[in-house]
Amino acid sequence: MTVFGGGDPIFDTQPRPISWMLQEIEAKRLALPDFQRDFVWDPAATRDLLVSIMSKFPSGSLLMLRQPSTGIHAFAPRAFAGAPDLSVNATPPMLVLDGQQRLTSLYQAHRGVGDARYLVNLASLVDSASPLDVEAVDFDALVTFETVKAGRPIQSDNADWQKDNWVFPVHQYLQADAGFDAWVEQAVAHHGGDSDTQLSRRLRLSSVRRALLTPLGSYNFPVVELDEQTTMIAVCKIFETLNLRGVKLSVFELITARVWAYGQNLRDLWASARQQHQVLVDYNVDPYNVLQAVTLRSTGSAQRAKVLDLRAENIQAHWNTVIEGYADALEFVRDQCWVQTEKWLPYGMILVPMAAAWDVIRDAPSKKRGVALERMKQYFGAPYSPPTSIKAETVRHRQTTCCCEHGWPARVTLPQRLSPTLHSTKVRSRTPARTAVRSIAGRWFW
Fold first, then answer.
1. Does residue 261 contact residue 233 with C-beta atoms inside 8 Å?
2. CA-to-CA distance for 438 and 339, rounded, in angstroms?
3. How much is the pTM?
4. For 2-16, how does the pLDDT look when each residue is reduced to its tens digit (9 = 90+)?
């Protein structure tokens, strides 16, 4: 609890049990910052986490931020996946910066929501006379899950099926009125037997609860809590650094975290762009490619290192122009180059220089615009040999030069035209449908 150079610590550390954190999520007092990524774990990962917790193994620490109840510096929150929605003006006192995937997994497992239901198979333990040795337990057989499928009933939700098979659902464990003890009474009565058999089963399952199931609620995670006075810039930097390991964030998500502190909400900007331009949705545009176009306009390069250095002022200056350019470029290749689906795009990067230069082409005099668009068609159909991010810098420069007042017409070395036979090995290796359309486009435009 000390900081380099002396002074007061900016964080506190203390253990928090799973049951407490689930209650806080349910009560909307524990949430996520809105710039946090979506939940991505699959059921197998959640199952492994449950096994680790039941085994009392270390499962990592959590990082949280105390948030002031008022003030313009509070981060906008959002609920965990599957948890109750937050009100519009909600300000949860605590936000989770690191540990979202684990807490979301545990919440969904304990509340019976999400894509799977998690189960503890007790059939091999209930009548066993062997001592209950936690280290000898076969957790692969003990803890399983049932995937939820749309339109199909969830088998493990059937109480009779549970009792028939001695299968206890994890999401009932912390329920006050339908917890493990209540389930045991029902299951033992369901199977019948003499009084000694029923008593033996009750005692055995009580031992199972103490040895294996208790950690499901009482397991403590080490929690590091950042003080509410921690600046947004510091919080975003911490968030970015933490998420360079573990579940990898995309470049778009890392930039989202970084620029939030400077008043730019990339999640909202991207959602708004997709809402305003259906073509971005139709062609499943990767927001990283949009950031590449922004970087290309602001720095002259679209390489990843430059994108990672993107600043809020770059986004503010170029975002709207690039979004309009991307939408117009997609409509151009759809209507003029017969690219009717994203599957017919050789790679998403091909649109980056087009989007970055589109406003220059659009605003050029009609004659120059016509020549530039014709050359766009040639560029779009050209084979690529160098890395596309480097090629984009050259092409964007050439496209822009074609429309500049000075030196028109410019002497530009364009990529070679494609012949109808499509000599490019990469193009020939594409699907027959794509090859056919590109071949037709070659005959029409070149």
1. yes
2. 8
3. 0.65
4. 343 344 556 778 899
Q: Which residues of the chain have pLDDT under 50?
A: 1-7, 73, 390-391, 395, 399-446
- Tokens encoding 80: 């965990």
CB neighbours (10 Å) of residue 193?
Answer: 13
Residues in the chain: 446
pLDDT attached to residue 426: 39
pLDDT at res. 440: 25
Tell me the C-alpha to C-alpha distance, in Å, between residue 250 and each of 277, 321, 353, 437.
23, 23, 21, 32
At 59 the pLDDT is 92
Q: What is the 3-state secondary structure (H, E, C) of the chain?
A: CCCCCCCCCCEEEEEEEHHHHHHHHHCCCEEEECCCCCCCCCHHHHHHHHHHHHCCCCCCCEEEEECCCCCCCCCCEECCCCCCCCCCCCCCCEEEEECHHHHHHHHHHHHCCCCEEEEEECHHHHCCCCCCCHHHCCHHHHEEEEECCCCCCCHHHCHHHHHHHCEEEHHHCCCCCCCHHHHHHHHHHHHCCCHHHHHHHHHHHHHHHHHHHCHHHHCEEEEEEECCCCCHHHHHHHHHHHCCCCCCCCHHHHHHHHHHCCCCCHHHHHHHHHHHCHHHHHCCCCHHHHHHHHHHHHHCCCCHHHHHCCCHHHHHHHHHHHHHHHHHHHHHHHHHCCCCCHHHCCCHHHHHHHHHHHHHHHCCCHHHHHHHHHHHHHHHCCCCCCCHHHHHHHHHHHHHHHHCCCCCCCCCCCCCCCCCCCCCHHHHCCCHHHHHHHHHHHHHHC
Residue 202's identity, in one-letter code, is R
Q: Quote the CA–CA distance of 164 and 390 in Å, as a whole number.
A: 64
Q: How many other β-carbons are positioned within 10 Å of the β-carbon of residue 200?
A: 16
Residue the block writes with tokens 């957790």: 139
Q: What is the dihedral of CA 338, 344, 350, 355, to 10 degrees?
A: 50
Q: What is the predicted pLDDT for the residue at 393? A: 53
Q: What is the pLDDT of residues 355-401, one digit of tens each?
A: 888 888 888 888 887 887 887 777 666 665 555 554 455 545 554 44
